[in-house]
Amino acid sequence: MTTTSTDIPTTGGTSHKQLAAWVEEVAALTTPDEIVWIDGSQEEYDRLCGELVDAGTFVKLDDAKKPNSYWCASDPLDVARVEDRTYICTKDEDGAGFTNNWMAPDQMKTEMEALYSGCMKGRTMYVIPFVMGHLDADSPMYGVELSDSAYVVTNMRIMARIGADVLKQMEDTDADFVRCLHSVGAPLEPGQQDVAWPCNETKYISHFPEERTIWSFGSGYGGNALLGKKCYALRIASAVAHDEGWMAEHMLILKLTSPEGKSYNIAAAFPSACGKTNLAMLEPTIDGWKAEMVGDDIAWMRFGPDGRLYAVNPEFGLFGVAPGTGWSTNSNAMQTIEKGNSIFTNVARTKDGDVWWEGATDEKPAELIDWKGNPWTPESSEKAAHPNARFTTPAKQCPMIAPEYDNPNGVPIDAILFGGRRATTIPLVYQSRDWNHGTFVGATLSSETTAAAAGAVGVVRRDPMAMLPFIGYSATDYIQHWINIGKDNDESKLPKIFGVNWFRKSDDGKFLWPGFGDNSRVLKWICDRLEGKVEADEAPIGLLPKAEDIDVTGLDMSADEVAASLAYDAEAWNKELPMIEEWLAKFGDKLPTELSEQLATLKKNVQN
Ligand code: GTP
Ligand code: SPV
Ligand code: MN
């Protein structure tokens, strides 16, 4: 082992001068005991997992049940994204916009440098070179995460393309990269016993989009700590995309093939824990339709030479919500994790080395160890798994992954869906009249909050394009960017935009629509609309399906129930209008005129 200029032992180094200098600079600030350069190999992964087992962080699962897989529980106070601790640090406060927390870059750095000072004492600093998207993309999007968490390294290896070949290509091309600094914020004094899940009560998830830099402190949880995902591929990338004329969106990408053999690519934006992974892994319940997954959380969309919008999934793995994922709802996800090589965080485990969560099986196991480590039986009042428990699993293990997943040029998108979790008001599906109206549907998207973020659950909030927590710049500029995409491009080649809601409930509180695989019936109608095969009814909010055009063959639903899920509810929309107006008022005089016109039209339509 060599040492750095500050005498810290290190397993590697780099000919990339800026990277070498930055690693030295961070090491001098955070003073780890050693620096380990991550090569991304299986041996390295197995060694780190072994160390995590020894540390009490991981429990190895039974290889016969989940090969090469681990169970892990976080600190009960570190289970989700922390939106109130997430900052966009632009020089100018306006740069962060009205939806983000803002602090001046210098002030944030001063505060965080104090926290980072000596914060890796007693720990290892890992250097994780990674690329979001493909290594053979036209301009590969590199990042390097420096982290003092082996949990982060093991999860990053599943979630992103990492390691020696990425570093080599960065060196060969002297590439620019996003600097991602992460610490759990729990230095160890000599002889001090570590805990299974080190973290800090003080948390900061800070982004410096102008410097393409991310600083995260205090949390080990996915979205706060796996910095390639939400921090880079959405917040930083959305700011880059705005400047360069493309889009980084919180969308799944699904390839759907009709019985006639025609393929459609659908991108869909739903807020966190509102059904992206499930729709991405759709098992159609209608004959002859085939679904393949391209991506389950993030879409990077750029215009191709033919003027169409092409989407790429920048990720390498799935960080999926466990509860509600089961053989009857999402067998593709279950098959993916069955193959092993997965990490389960905050789920329950069985005494014989398997994992379980609410909804995994219809029948509850007689006894479990819950996510907090306590004995659990079906009579227990608490849930066995945390509602935001997650599995980290390689995307390639998904039995229905599309071959196009490996194509750095992505797939041309035919339709964009916006959906949220709304018990009332929003019908099962409706089509927007044009791009600007579709942008309005996205800009006014609303959803009940979920356990994916710390805070209250079940509160309706506006979540523009499902990007509220992920826009890395000003929301007004973001919405304007969507309008500009429509203005600057041939609209006939742009995707058609639809609104959907799988979560509408009857008065007695039951879901009106069966959801999951039966959502293929809604997608079929969307494809029929793209083909001009079916007419739609002009409604105040857009174009609604005629009930007879939704294929309900084999569904156990009465005509009244189908009608109720599809219906435009005038009374509910009259209540919704003031909420939409209040939301759009926040954009002030920066609301694009195209959207104020859409609002005026909606008002006129709903009130008549
Ligand atoms: P993030 O990973 O947080 O971005 O979430 P996601 O959008 O990928 O959501 P996911 O597909 O993991 O679903 C979240 C929860 O919603 C799970 O508990 C699912 O079982 C449930 N869910 C997904 N699709 C449907 C549906 O069509 N109907 C109903 N009722 N529930 C659904
Ligand atoms: C989400 O919350 O939208 C997720 C999980 O996909 S996380 O990576 O934690 O953000
Ligand atoms: Mn997500």
Automatic annotation (TrEMBL):
Protein name: Phosphoenolpyruvate carboxykinase [GTP]
Keyword GTP-binding belongs to the record: yes
Residues annotated for GTP binding in this entry: 273-278, 390, 421, 516-519
Reactions catalysed, as given in the entry: oxaloacetate + GTP = phosphoenolpyruvate + GDP + CO2
EC class name: lyase
Family per similarity comment: Belongs to the phosphoenolpyruvate carboxykinase [GTP] family.
Record-linked CDD domains: PEPCK_GTP
Main location: cytoplasm
Key words of the record: Cytoplasm, Decarboxylase, Gluconeogenesis, GTP-binding, Lyase, Manganese, Metal-binding, Nucleotide-binding
Record function comment: Catalyzes the conversion of oxaloacetate (OAA) to phosphoenolpyruvate (PEP), the rate-limiting step in the metabolic pathway that produces glucose from lactate and other precursors derived from the citric acid cycle.
Cofactor: binding details: Binds 1 Mn(2+) ion per subunit.
Keyword field contains Calcium: no
Annotated Phosphoenolpyruvate carboxykinase C-terminal P-loop domain residues: 246-604
Pathway: Carbohydrate biosynthesis; gluconeogenesis
Enzyme Commission designation: 4.1.1.32
Record organism: Mobilicoccus caccae
Cofactor: Mn(2+)
Protein localization: Cytoplasm
Quaternary structure annotation from Swiss-Prot or TrEMBL: Monomer.
Residues that hold Mn(2+) according to the record: 230, 250, 297
Pfam families in the record: PEPCK_GTP, PEPCK_N
Residues at the catalytic site: 274
InterPro entries in the record: PEP_carboxykin_GTP_CS (IPR018091), PEP_carboxykinase_C (IPR013035), PEP_carboxykinase_GTP (IPR008209), PEP_carboxykinase_GTP_C (IPR035077), PEP_carboxykinase_GTP_N (IPR035078), PEP_carboxykinase_N (IPR008210)
